[in-house]
Amino acid sequence: MSQSTDTPGIRILREGDITTLILDNPRRKNAINTTMARAFLQAIQQVTEDDSRVVILTGAGADFCAGADLDPGTLQGGFDVTHFLRTHYNPAVLAMRASDKPFIAQVRGSCVGVGFNFALACDLILASETATFSQIFTRIGLSSDGGGAYFMPERLGYHKAYELMVNNTTLPAAEALRLGLVNHVLADDQLDEAVQRQAMALAQGPYIAIQRTKANIRTGITGTLAEALDQEAVSQGTSMATHDFMEGVMAFIQKRKPVYKGK
């Protein structure tokens, strides 16, 4: 059974345990205007708190997101971009990363600027072979936002991240894959199926263990070795108390496929 909720520039589609957030401004390649940014934050807050198990983030039509939809009239009218980023983009990105729920970016076409960084905030990125990626900010005299200054060095190291960001380099999907910026690149007509298959595998898998693994990795990235070890100890205790742990052990012993219930 599917449910759909629409807000200005954002569509939310719920099918079973999987929620899809669709950036919906296709005439502007899903560039994010101020109304969409507000709706995106609300949508992220909603899906991190509901009982869905997996979130897919994608764009309507042929593109993922062409970054921010800059309106010269708004910008010339005393628009406080620092306040706006702090109250809209930043909380959305932090909520995605703080949630133990898996997020999958499904990327076609342009994926640039803050759109690229929203994709990088996800846990998995599956891209069409025709997708292109860029930290485009310096092309128009801006510095990065949306977490690019964190995500790019995290994946590439300082020097490569700096090179790509200050030169606003456009990367084809194959190069993004080679650099480790995306997980998989697929033919355009295979992307939807691959994303759904991955989402179903997560939703129907040992869900508590999957959530605790994200928590472990998050601590491993942001904390010390001692903190990561302690987080793993806590998560292991939580996981071992689940039905799915016993099911996994018994299925291994009995040489059969486990049937997980996410509890």
Major beta sheet, specifics?
A: 7 strands, mixed
Sketch the topology as an H/E string, one letter per element. EEEHEHHEEHEEHHEHEHHHH
Total of helices:
11
Q: Based on CA inertia axes, which overall geometry fits?
A: globular
Give the distance, in angstroms, between the N- and C-terminal Cα atoms.
Answer: 22 Å
- Contiguous low-pLDDT stretches (5 residues minimum) are none
Tell me what the structure shows.
There is one protein chain. The protein is of the alpha/beta class. The chain contains eleven helices and ten strands. It has a seven-stranded mixed sheet with strand order 1-2-3-4-5-7-10, sandwiched between helices. The protein has a three-stranded mixed sheet with strand order 6-8-9. Helix 1 packs parallel to helix 3 (81-98). The longest helix is centred in the middle third of the chain and has 18 residues, at 81-98. The protein is globular, with a radius of gyration of 19 Å.
